[in-house]
Design goal:
2 copies of one chain form a homodimer.
Chain A: E1 7-11, H1 35-47, E2 52-55, H2 66-69, H3 80-88, E3 95-101, H4 107-120, E4 125-130, H5 135-139, H6 149-167, E5 175-178, E6 183-185, E7 195-196, E8 201-202, E9 217-220, H7 225-234, E10 237-240, H8 245-261, E11 270-279, H9 283-294, H10 299-310, H11 334-347, H12 351-360, E12 365-368, H13 370-382, E13 388-392, H14 398-413, H15 426-430
Parallel strand pairs in A: 1-2, 1-13, 2-3, 3-4, 4-9, 9-10, 10-11, 11-12, 11-13
Antiparallel strand pairs in A: 5-6, 7-8
Helix pairs in contact in A: 3-4, 4-6, 6-7, 7-8, 10-12, 13-14
Chain lengths: 441, 441
């Protein structure tokens, strides 16, 4: 087996980010909110030796026009901690990553729930640290205005310090439980945090033993300037969305460089771009599948997405013709418009197909045969574009089965993905060290 | 089978409230924080057809002198939502009651987690609504001072209104999931709460379908004046701690009367006093077991508890003699001191034994044979003292096995406890109606 290995996590909230996925032939329309299906998905991912099952999160029903909203399969979802705790009991090895926002919650609650999930799962928890910026969420938490971006990141950094400090409340060997003497734990091995900072004041100690992993694995999803810096200082896995290998290599080098500058070992931070994976018998077959799932995106919401990407109202264009060449000037992102134009030219898409691509899933995608996708992934790994991927499924169960049953064996054949778990904790799967307790050596 | 039936819930956080329990011969010293043990306990309780598994909660390591703290088996515990979600996957019928405070959390989070637990468990969730009054907790949430008692209850009432309103965000039949038309849900069946009150502002809607039970069962534990009133208006099960049948009957009549005055049916509110149950082969055997577990309470913390109960410093008394007859005057509760004096006289306890009773568990207890305890329970049921009990175990697993294997069959023989579940939700176990959606008929 070669030195450098891929890490694979599965993006599972929603189970597909593609807005047409729930309508795909053979799919489960309620997959996102059906425990039986979710159990089957995680068990298949574990059988394929995935590193982790990854739950994004939203603290609101997302704001969109009712015509789009009523078509969204994401309006009802399980809450991450309750779902992952349930799934911890039907799996043994796969990591369980929950997103938890630092904006509208309390560090004592967050520290406690992740510690509890880590204990219940035998050391498989990860915390995806996010800040919450959408005004719909702020209105669910008594705030008319949401925190500014910079303020949210400042609070997030302090929140991280408090949560990790609370996890270190007890030394790993604090609990004696000596029935004879009646001593349950050694009070010398309990630390009271007494944190008082700009945004947070938390006394501690946490009322739960130190997590199995010391700390659950720290995940970060930011791509902004403060997001990259926070990731470089704190993250052990980074979820990101580069458009292509060139962008990925730049991001990879930047974040690993910042981590090194912050005194960390770059290999203790894994970069895992999100990638839609569509496996076919041939490249044509895979592309046809993509067009088929794209075609299930409702045109009204699709055209709105295309208009945003173009920075111009696309609703008057002929849906079944090519993109007009005489687009009006835009003040919006030129990079974004250039991407649309390139895609239209490369794939010869009509306005409708373009719109449905943007309304469906327009991020990084690997579309091809098991062999071609595995080769692409190996290139990303070898050339410093990523340490693995956060896999987005186009539809389920078929799209997930295609990955676990066809792509993973090809990755294993190439020697870049494990054939079995060698450890039992998520840290062990990812090759990350167990943090020492800052208060007890 | 007779008309009126007992309901039994098990008090499981900590697994025993008795402070000496973890030291008892044959006990599991780590039972409170060992998932394997907790799974085995809940499966035994389900096999015995208990209504629910009940988790109290604390948002801090409880404040006590280090000499007592280091002897406490409660300093490390699982967080309720993560534990109950995990246990939902190893059980099928038993209810799952979580305590969640309204003082340092957000109604959107609470509504969402209980809805998620209710869906994951197929309609078995209950919310024990509490307010948090101890300063140790407030300091873990950035507050130097805790809210005053009245203010906490005012916020709790509004919090309840918001949480139940959020649960009603979607009509029960909102989700269509029509693959053909692409309509996932009917937007006419989505309600935006738009709550703006004295303490809380929450827009909604909740991002999860209406709970299986409509609303999870509402539990209340208050005995104070505002606690009783809140219970009468909102609770469907009341956890309380009367000392004896006379006190229980008064409390029962008071709360049911208040419920009726609030326009509710008294039978839609179940009164379930907490009761320690110690089963023996004879009354003497059961009493000996109680003395044995009491004897495991450390004398230093025990004598402090006795001093509080007496309203006088007991540390200078002869531990192995009787309680002195010349107690100093007290400004503390005369009822409390009278209780100590009566107990000392009735059971002929030494100062040490008295102290260990107060330091161990001094609330309502049924101590006897399966037959005598079942008869007592039937009296409470028949005479309007309770609708069942919240069972506290003296030690585990033996004390739990004694209840499930010896007491429950005797209750079943008397026809006052189910031999099997007749429904699948906790509401069905308790005989409670499913709430209608306030926004959709």
């Amino acid at each position: 087996m070669s030195e450098k290995q891929l890490h694979l996590t599965a993006f599972m909230r929603p189970v597909s980010l593609h807005t047409g996925a729930w309508r795909y032939p053979g799919s489960y329309p309620d997959a996102n909110f059906n425990l039986t299906h979710l159990k089957s998905f995680i068990q298949k991912l574990e059988a394929a030796k995935f590193d982790a099952f990854f739950m994004a999160d939203h603290l609101a029903v997302l704001n969109m026009p009712v015509e789009a909203l009523k078509r969204s399969h994401t309006v009802t979802s399980f809450e991450p901690f309750t779902l992952l705790s349930a799934l911890s009991q039907v799996t043994e090895k796969i990591g369980l990553a929950a997103t938890a926002s630092t904006t509208y919650d309390e560090p004592y609650h967050i520290a406690r729930r992740f510690a509890s999930l880590d204990h219940l799962s035998g050391g498989r928890a990860a915390w995806n640290i996010v800040t919450t910026g959408n005004p719909e969420s702020s209105k669910n938490f008594g705030k008319d205005e949401h925190l500014q971006h910079g303020d949210r990141y400042k609070r997030a950094r302090e929140f991280y310090d408090v949560v990790t400090g609370l996890w270190d409340s007890f030394a790993d060997d604090a609990f004696i439980r000596d029935r004879e003497s009646g001593i349950f734990f050694d009070p010398e091995k309990l630390h009271v945090l007494n944190h008082k900072g700009d945004d947070l004041a938390v006394r501690g100690p946490l009322n739960i033993a130190r997590p199995v992993q010391g700390w659950p694995v720290i995940v970060q999803a930011g791509q902004s300037e403060p997001g990259r810096q926070l990731a470089a200082e704190t993250a052990e896995a980074v979820f990101c969305s580069p458009r292509d290998l060139a962008a990925a290599k730049a991001l990879y080098a930047d974040i690993k460089g910042r981590a090194e500058a912050a005194g960390r070992k770059p290999e203790h931070l894994k970069i895992l771009p999100a990638a839609l994976i569509i496996v076919g018998d041939s490249l044509e077959d895979a592309k046809a599948k993509r067009l088929a799932v794209d075609a299930l995106v409702h045109y009204d919401s699709a055209i709105a997405s295309l208009s945003v990407a173009l920075g111009a109202d696309a609703s008057g264009f002929d849906p079944d013709g090519p993109l007009p060449t005489d687009l009006p000037e835009t003040n919006a992102s030129h990079t974004s418009r250039a991407g649309v134009l390139k895609l239209a030219a490369d794939e010869g898409l009509t306005v409708r197909q373009l719109a449905q691509r943007y309304g469906g899933y327009s991020g990084l995608a690997f579309v091809g045969t098991p062999e071609s996708i595995a080769a692409e992934m190996e290139t990303w790994l070898r050339e410093g574009g990523s340490d693995g991927f956060t896999v987005v499924f186009p539809f389920l169960p078929q799209g997930l089965d295609d990955v676990t049953q066809r792509l993973v064996p090809e990755l294993q054949r190439r020697g870049i993905f494990r054939k079995d778990y060698t450890g039992s904790t998520l840290r062990e799967h990812l090759g990350l060290p167990r943090p020492t307790n800052r208060f007890f050596e």
